[in-house]
User: Fold this.
Amino acid sequence: MDFSEFEDVAHRLADAAAAATLPHFRSGLAVENKLDGAFDPVTAADRDAERAIRDLIFKAYPDHGLLGEEFGLVKGASAYQWVVDPIDGTRAFVSGVPLWTTIIGLRHEGVPVFGMVDQPYIGDRFWGGAGRAAFRPAHGTQGPGTQGPIRTRACATLADAILMTTFTGLFDPQTELDRYLRVERAVRLVRYSADAYAYCMVAAGQIDLVVESKLEAYDIVGLVPIIEGAGGIITDWQGDPIRDGGTAVAAGDPRVHAETLALLNG
Assistant:
């Protein structure tokens, strides 16, 4: 597939989302809780950004479907469906930590084929599809805003790997936590709380592994093409392709991926 048109549209979507979110960041805006008995925050910034993205998608592709975290599903006549998280990492957003992102994904007949992740406060943007991935950094040796390809890095074993996950509280204590901790004990270094940004660091060759659970489709669809386009591998904990969320193992090197699955599955 030629994704140049989708790539151009996704850049416009990310720009529109940034225009909606940045005025709210570190502004002391009101925070609502979407869950009873737990904390799942949502803000006006989440909703404003998703509205902006939706408006542009339906102007460009009125027959495409769309699934967003805040406003749900709009079925389309096309085989294409956009899957959007306007602010992935709302906990970071409301805490003033600039590791939240906007995730824009595209599925064709249910398969993730293109993705973009934008962090507008820092100014980093990642995207991928059709076997390639790219990064436009805010800062770099080639100058601000200079984009280029990214690749995962080689890592022969978990003992040499850097692992990231959002936080251990997302793992089910009865069925998942002990399995995850086997992996954590095997790696060289563990870092927390980067949400989608962690997957981009795998794609960019900065870290080696992400292990997560309780993901929704809008959390992960846009990340799959970036990881795969950069040469990495991303599956669920059973080693199957990810289509609608659930569990995830994203690794830059297939050896680390295989060792992780072996530990997760005992």
